[in-house]
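Predicting holo structure, pyridoxal-5'-phosphate bound.
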Amino acid sequence: MEFIDLKRQYQRMKGEIDQALASVVKSGRFILGEPVRRLEEELAGFVGVPEAIGVSSGTDGLLLSLMALDVRPGEEIITTPFTFIATAEVISLLGARVVFADIDPQTYNLDPAAVEEVVRARRARGKLRGIIAVSLFGQCADLDALTEVAEEAGLFLIEDACQSLGATYKGRPSGGITELAVTSFFPAKPLGAYGDGGMIFCRHQGLGARLRALRVHGQRERYRHEEIGLNARLDALQAAVLLVKLKHFPQEIALRQHWAKAYDQRLAKISPVTPPFIAPGNTSVFAQYSIRVPERDALARYLKERGIPTAIHYPVPLHLQPAFASLGYRQGDFPVAEAVSQEILSLPFHPYLTQEEIELVAGAIEDFFALGT
Ligand SMILES: Cc1ncc(COP(=O)(O)O)c(C=O)c1O
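Done. Tokens:
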């Protein structure tokens, strides 16, 4: 059994994908080009923003967004400690300071009340610039509440939508709610490429052209560089694959939600297991199907022995990572993130699961807890 079975997906779309790849190879044009332009247009429509900018990864999309917002060394940006490192890494790369706030114990996303408290505590220093909210595991953060905190304090708000493309928040699509949002096409993501890729969604008037220049070395005209940028372009082969997968994406989202419900129903019978909580008004795209369980590591070992792969997103919250030691945080600073990181476990999940596989995984979890009692 695979954790995410990309081979099954390929078998279903093989004809279309092979043809799309061959047409790029035949065209001899591999950097940006027509497939990237079409993907930008289709995805801008999908999330309902005026402009989308294809980039080389979610990480680069976040970095470019902060560059376009003129984040400077010493400025402070609030984010969650319970995320993939890229979210906070890009802040540090620009010499700005990462300021963490704790998460909600049910959704695992930033807790707006905790963010508000951080803002209150640090506002007088005059260094706060913005908030990066992560929509973790496929479910949007509480973006209205965070927008309110941001607006009140004069901060920008970026949605890290790397795991949540296809989700909705109060009927609005993830990626289309904040002025800037970024998604990732890492192969394991809900909309995954065959390599790295990402997209910036831009509702912010005037930033689109700057972001386009920044992704090609700050260049607006050939060999005229207005500012220092990056090489952070999406390539044509990835865009061609993504255009095919995008056609199937609405159906895949429905399948993800179907299999999540099937897991929910089956796991409801196993009392130590806390299935994912989807907040009222949200739909999730289930980038991960992550449960919370006591004895997580022993369960993961037990499942592995039975050929069932699992993953831990994420075993160490960012404030306790060696890379962020200089920030001076300690164990106990973010108790919710710390507790969740001890108990979270992601189960095999993708649109092409079968009911037998759900039963296999849930049955093994049931056996594990039955043996323990
Ligand atoms: C929450 C989050 N932010 C940022 C990233 C970075 O995306 P990428 O791997 O495309 O650079 C990822 C994915 O890996 C992610 O899950």
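The mean pLDDT is 97.
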